[in-house]
Design brief:
Length: about 130
Amino acid sequence: MKVTFNKGIPGFETLRKFEIRDLDGNDRFKILQSEESEISFATVNPFDIYSEYEINLNEETIKELEVERPEDVLVLSIITLGKTLETSTMNLKAPVVINIKNCLGKQFILQNERYETKHPLIRREQNVSNQ
């Protein structure tokens, strides 16, 4: 899918045209590849890892992306690769939001304090006991 970011992505404002494709051998991860440079981002649907994740788009973003229905929105989190998957993180604070009907996208910065830019990509269960 080809996506246009009318204002670019923060830090890469001059790049507007991207393509989303599956990572070879693993369709859970997507590559967001610039069509204007060698820049690409590994991404994942945050709901696949953090089912309790919540995002509420503001009216400005809904209008900017021309969103008519929630099911037309694809949300992706950019991954920061570590030396291993266990040390890799994902950005839940600023997801990439895409209207799949018109292929417009934007990186949306959440004003929610519970999300950070570096959440673990691999979740660990906390203190599981047999007692």
